[in-house]
Amino acid sequence: MFIGFSNGNFHQFFQKNIEKHSLECINFCKVEGEANAIELHASSEEEINYLLKIGKDKLKYFKYVSFHTPSFLYKNNKNTRKILQKFSLLREKLAIQNFVFHTDKKNDWTFLSSYNIPISVENMDNKKNYGKTIEEMKKILEKYNFGLTLDLQHCYTNDKKMKLTKNFHEELGEKIKEYHLSGFSKNKNHAPLFKTEEKEIIFSLKKRNIPIILEGVFSSLKDAKKELIYVKKNLRKNFKQKNLF
């Protein structure tokens, strides 16, 4: 099982946003050797430039590395071309296996598909205007050779009964390249599941060998470890029930 954290989970530990890419934070993401996947979450070009300067050896511990792209509007223009060239360099330097793009913006997907980077698109939560439904995601995924990053908490915000997740698996299951997993809270956009205890979100996961990125936001390393233990325990129950071992 590939499971780990977004380094954005630990942003509360640091005064500057860029510090979540520091060696200290990367080591936090290992959770004392219990996690083996990481998603690098960038929100600016400054952060991309910072990542281009770090050594590949700093990430060699992780079996799976993905990159959550900044929430820019990606169009066929000079600025986007510059950013995408940097993405290509990041892929080569840090062995990134998946570049995650949000679907709520009107990106030029045809232009993005022309670049040699492994792209997946993420379904959106109920606060967004687009990218929430299977029909909207299909408009992208049936036209381009992209994967799907299925955010189970986003599904939950749109459908508490989790039928939406079931339908995503049935209709686009072969496209799923990564899961995002977290709890729902009115106070936090992404809360730790060990606190919210929404097991139905965990139990909606149906594919055994897809990398899982935990997105709950933590105020301590102790909480991160609690989250990993809680999720793994319930995943084992889920896999056993579905005979996925």
Could you give a quick summary of the protein structure above?
This protein is α/β, with parallel strands linked by helices and 245 residues long. It is built from ten helices and eight strands. Helix 1 (23-28) links the parallel strand 1 and strand 2.
Write a structural description:
- The chain is an alpha/beta fold.
- The chain has one domain (3-241): Divalent-metal-dependent TIM barrel enzymes (TIM Barrel, Alpha-Beta Barrel), CATH 3.20.20.
- Helix content is 38%, strand content 15%.
- The chain is built from ten helices and eight strands.
- It has helices spanning 23-28, 45-53, 78-94, 109-113, 134-141, 152-158, 163-172, 193-196, 199-203, 221-241; strands at residues 3-6, 37-41, 64-68, 98-102, 119-122, 147-151, 176-181, 212-214.
- An eight-stranded parallel beta barrel has the order 1-2-3-4-5-6-7-8.
- Helix 2 runs parallel beside helix 3.
- The radius of gyration is 17 Å and the shape is globular.
- The model has no long low-confidence stretch (mean pLDDT 94).
Give the topology, please.
Layout: E1 3-6, H1 23-28, E2 37-41, H2 45-53, E3 64-68, H3 78-94, E4 98-102, H4 109-113, E5 119-122, H5 134-141, E6 147-151, H6 152-158, H7 163-172, E7 176-181, H8 193-196, H9 199-203, E8 212-214, H10 221-241
Parallel strand pairs: 1-2, 1-8, 2-3, 3-4, 4-5, 5-6, 6-7, 7-8
